[in-house]
Design a protein that fits this description.
Elements lengths: L1 H27 L1 H8 L3 H9 L1 H19 L1 H19 L5 H15 L2 H10 L7 H9 L1 H24 L2 H23 L12 H21 L4 H5 L2 H29 L1 H5 L5 H29 L3 H14 L9 H23 L8 H15 L1 H17 L3 H20 L25 H13 L1
Amino acid sequence: MRKVGVRLVPFLMALYFVNYLDRTNLGIAKASISEDLQLSATMFGFAAGIFFIGYVLVEVPSNLALHRIGARRWLARIAVSWGIIVVAIGFAPNAATLLVLRFLLGVAEAGLFPGVIFYLSRWFPAAYRARVVAMFMLATPIAAAVGTPLAAWLIHVGDDMFGAGWQFMMICCGVPAVVLGVVCWFYLTDRPTDAHWLTGEERRWLVEVMAAEENEVTERFGFSLRRALGSPPVWALAVVYFGIAYGLYALAFFLPSIISGFQQSFGLTLSILQVGMITAIPYACAAIGMYVWSRHADRTAEHVWHVGIPVLIGGLTIPVALYLDGPVPVMIAVTVVAVGVFAAIPSFWALPSRFLTGVAAAGAIALINSLGNLGGFAAPYVTGALVDLTGSERAGMWAVGAVMVLSATVMVALRATPAGDRRPQGSLGPNPPVSLGSEDTREGNHADRNHD
């Protein structure tokens, strides 16, 4: 498993690092791009959020295509196409072109994240998944911690050299995606049976373990694609992920502007480079918290409360940040929110593969991610609209907190039964993650209690 992790995870992290930076770098360029293209706060929020409309429309078909064509080819296609579009954004002459390109960026990127989650579920047994997803998703806080200052520096360099800072930054961020897409075609391996970089014995062991897990899940649940897409647990998890994504992208798009507002609130003047460096602090802490929390989740074989608790803490904390007196207390509160959001995500994505396999897992994971990521559209748009309406960031942050608390409440309502989230000693297969009152889930939990 260490060899599989070393082979796959660093490359997938690099791919997602560039992906996250390319979808959120609009936030660090907010001031200059709004001035150049004459965007109001509402219009900027719409430009940030329209990405997710294209993303949602294509997400499920994209993941089904990945299942059919193979991760190597499909992830390569995704990376090359989104890189080209990001470069094109650097040449956007007006707001209308920006909106069209942001929509197309969502279409191009659709399928990357759920595709990787599904891909990892084909390589790592259930006991490893939360920590592996956490390692992969370390790319997100690292992209925010390292990529945000990098994007700010590129804007600064572009302004000095060409008088077009945000355009230069977009072009520089798009090119690496194209390069990684080409590398992906030759580097990734679609399935364990093709892993010639493992020894014959290692390959056989991994194939047998993954097959045993898949057979057990199939026998116990037997979700077809159609049944999975209409399953109450799948839709309930989408509601939970909506709240997580709402908090994630509210931070991504508006944290730089909140920090820039320290000048008005506290008389603290900051350059765009300083804003980028300060923005990195919460994400650096989130990276550590996410990895430690996910290892604890795998060690205890419990994932439901490992989602609900950090999301609840983050939701209760985020509106408080705007009422604190001083930049340091504000940043401490924001850091708590960031840790809460990111700590929940790996455990969340360990849940679907506990009752889904094959094409049903591919489609359902994409559906959860696409519907959940409507929060990525709603967060910047609603937050921007509330800023225009009230003239303050506070109403928007209260909305973020309320949505996250609702998400945590739904997650707790879906809590595992006493035996439902724990794997019996020696079992290769997962147990039902949630209790929704459906006949199949109740029967599965009853069988688990008898087995225990």
